[in-house]
Amino acid sequence: MEPGRTFADTLVLACARDPRLVRAAVWGARGVSVDLYEAYADALALGVSPHVDDAVAELCLEDDERIVSLALDVAWRRRAVTVGPVLTCLYHASPAIRLRAARALGASQHAEAAAKALDARLAVERSPSVIAAILESMVRLHAPHADEHVHRALVELVRLGAEVDDEHREARLTLGKLSAAIGRVHDVNVFVGASTHAREIECLGWFGRATVLGPLVDTLAARAKDDGIPQACARALARITGLVPESTPRGPRLVDGKLTTVDDERLLLDPNLWRAHFAAHGELLSASSKLRFGRNFSVGEAITEHLADGVRVRDRAFTSVEIAFNAQRAFTALDESGWVEPQLAALGRSS
Cα–Cα distance between 272 and 217 in angstroms, integer? Predict the structure, then answer.
């Protein structure tokens, strides 16, 4: 069967009122082939029937790792996570299953129970990618001492140096983003020295600290020909300052772009223009505040970007962590690639 047909057929059943039809849709995952996995997961995640959630929770107890992975992915995307079945997966032999379980628990409505389960697993976990997933969920759940755990884990990974494998690098990137979301001022100094890849460099912009502007411009000048590096530097600079280039009779200059998200069509890749601007106007940027597009950061800035036109899905995934950590009320962002209306409702409840 084609992925498109699989998606359509499964979505129809996952929206049915009859729980028997919904169960048939969910339990059909047992026979799904690898090439249809994504279509099946998408359909179940988008299905509006509440009966999907109970059936998916039962799939978490299956022996087949592929089915368990699908169930955890769907539960997480639906933000309908039952702690009991997922807790079992948190102690699975497969790191990939444990990672999915840790991520899913971050969306649980039973925050206290989920946070305790994650904290217990953190004490014995050795996989860097699973540790990063556990800590992201703990930050989302406002777990006690989550910020201290993030700091220690980030320092440990940075000490390994720049030349690490992909798993360690991805875990370090996740921890850097968490530290930025939490707003740990001193962690930016820890992270900046380890930022050698494009996504790590771009992450410096989420810290929002004027102290990284100089290193970003220096990197932009030194690695102008490296694939993806100039764009990453320019995105980070724009995220902190909100500045975009403008043509004038005397040549280009930097002006306030009134940004609500980074605009890739208006990035400045010229390090000399950035240096000239900071030499003339650098004192206007507060060194003691977290900045977002030249403005003092607030959760309102994160919500505005979360809803902005043209925002990238991976940026929206990050703003959801910022909102979860900084919102006065409990906030569980819905699947960033899912229906828009539930996302708007969740944001409304957080403000």
Answer: 8
- Residues 262, 243: Cα–Cα separation, whole Å: 10
Tell me the pLDDT band of 298, cut-offs 50, 70 and 90.
Answer: very high
Q: Which residue has the tokens 């919500």?
A: 303
Domain ranges across the chain? 1-78, 86-189, 195-297, 308-351
Amino acid at residue number 277: H
| Cβ–Cβ < 8 Å for 113, 83 | yes
Q: Looking at residue 30, what is its pLDDT?
A: 83
Contact (Cβ atoms closer than 8 angstroms) between residue 336 and residue 313: yes
CA angle in degrees (0–180, nearest 5) for 107-110-112: 105
Q: Cβ(185)–Cβ(208) under 8 Å?
A: no
Asked if 236 and 216 count as a contact pair (C-beta separation under 8 A), the reply is: yes
Cα 20 → chain centroid:
35
CA distances from 76 to 34, 52, 69, 226 (A): 20, 13, 11, 36
**Which residues have C-beta within 8 Å of that of residue 229, sequence separation ≥ 6?**
198, 201, 219, 220, 223
pLDDT over 80 (residue 336): no
Q: Which helix (H) or strand (E) holds 72?
A: helix 65-78
Separation of alpha carbons 151 and 159, rounded Å:
12
Q: What is the radius of gyration, based on Cα positions, of the chain?
A: 22
Query: Using 50, 70 and 90 to split pLDDT, how confident is the model at 272?
Result: very high
Strand partners for 307: none
How many other β-carbons are positioned within 10 Å of the β-carbon of residue 349? Answer: 12
Contact between 176 and 152 (Cβ < 8 Å): no
Q: How many CB atoms lie within 10 A of CB 347?
A: 19
Alpha carbons 58 and 56: distance in angstroms, whole number: 5
CA dihedral 73, 79, 82, 83 (to 10 degrees): 80
- The pLDDT of residue 162 is 72
Torsion sign over Cα 53, 57, 58, 62:
positive
